[in-house]
Amino acid sequence: MVLAVVERDGRGSLSAASGEVLGTARELAERLGVAVAAVAVGEAGDLPDDLAKQGVGRLHLLAHELLDGGGPARLGEALAGLVATLAPAAVLGADEPGVTDAMAWAATMVGAPLATACTEVRPGDDAWEVTRERSGGILLEDAVLAGPVRFCTLRPGGPAPSETAAAAEVTVDVVVPELDTTLPHATLVERRERSAGMSLATAPVVVAGGRGVGSAGGYAVLEELAGLVGGVVGCSRVATNNGWRPHSDQVGLTGTRISPDLYVACGISGATQHWVGCMNARSILAVNTDPEAPMVTRATWAVIGDVHTVLPAVVAEIRERSRRR
Ligand SMILES: Cc1cc2nc3c(=O)[nH]c(=O)nc-3n(C[C@H](O)[C@H](O)[C@H](O)COP(=O)(O)OP(=O)(O)OC[C@H]3O[C@@H](n4cnc5c(N)ncnc54)[C@H](O)[C@@H]3O)c2cc1C
To answer: Domain spans of the chain?
Structure first.
């Protein structure tokens, strides 16, 4: 069996990332000649219907009051117990912090290998090969997993899952795990939205500023431009380190990875750790005084000039054009 760890989205349906995990689980299961089962936490809700559409006929529901906000250690322990009972060939989950942390605990508890951020999983007779992302996605690494159970987290955004026949029915097994309350664990205290409105991760346009903006006050013109083009403001780590912007605005390896239609990089050099956060933008406009800056040489378009001159001119031109319309 291939066991897929699945999660719900904000509406209670199967999350998009979990749908992709099930697609890979199905392909692996077909090659191995085994079935796919899913595991989730809490109430069944819409999951059985969503799983049926994905051709998955069995759902294991981990039910325990300590799993509600219990953090990854407890979920990992519950998952390890299920894996010990079911002995699947592989456990797959989305490469998202909550799932990855829980799978790391579970893999450690059952003594199995774990590969995170996989873009491909190739089963073999004994050892399995995986390709996984490293350094924020700029490197791809081939690795071999040796062990009777292989834990893999999958990077979202892989090839679309192939079409499948729906399962006639989904059997739901409610599993009440035995949890060791003396194990070290983190407990969720509160979860809150970072900001209201459009988020950095989903905005179609991001106007970001780096050291070249010069000060916290210098972002006013970026805010204005972002407002005019229906976008949000982002920044480099220099800006967060200097206290000019909150960390929630940071784009990059240790910030948010974004894929807007347009990324406007103002006074940002394009260091690797920043680039991995914005390299999936459809187009990039760099505004920089240095024609040799990596951001300029990689951008779709570049304006060589001072942000303090270029941005006010762009804002004035947009205002003038909308006044004339
Ligand atoms: C482990 C690790 C993780 C990191 N994670 C991140 C991350 O998530 N995000 C991130 O951004 N960085 C990250 N960094 C830092 C990264 O390496 C760079 O130091 C940072 O991105 C540089 O920010 P910057 O481009 O604003 O500044 P600089 O590299 O100093 O570049 C400033 C640019 O502005 C231009 N400029 C200067 N004045 C003007 C002006 N008046 N008008 C126009 N252009 C001007 C300059 O020509 C230059 O190209 C990380 C580093 C490490 C070690």
So the answer is: 2-175, 205-324
